């Protein structure tokens, strides 16, 4: 199982790590690999061609406004969009999990829905900030279903 994510404030990275820990403890037979897009960019590496199914994780950073009639332009996380758009990478994405702050109302996880519309994969779930243990369990179940591992 592969998780591809971008984390700017550390919230998404912390949530992905909680999921990795959850799978390690509860499903040790399912190895989890992670790819931090921010680290790729920081190290000057090219976006890789992904050749296996993965789940994408995306925090919401938008330019001002209210997310309805303005303020719905993605900022800071476009490296993940570029990686997904490269070659056939979007084909392997089983879905996206969005995060954000509910204080931003209509903008909450809006970027994940924009990716879903652009690339044609589903928004599997959303959570706020670093997520709660209930979010980890719920989202782990949805990831299992996306990978068709839950019987």
From TrEMBL:
Chain ranges passing through the membrane: none
Highest taxon of the lineage: Bacteria
GO molecular function, one term: FMN binding
Database matches in PANTHER family: PROTEIN NRDI
Name this polypeptide is given: Putative NrdI-like protein
Higher taxonomy: Bacteria, Bacillati, Bacillota, Bacilli, Lactobacillales
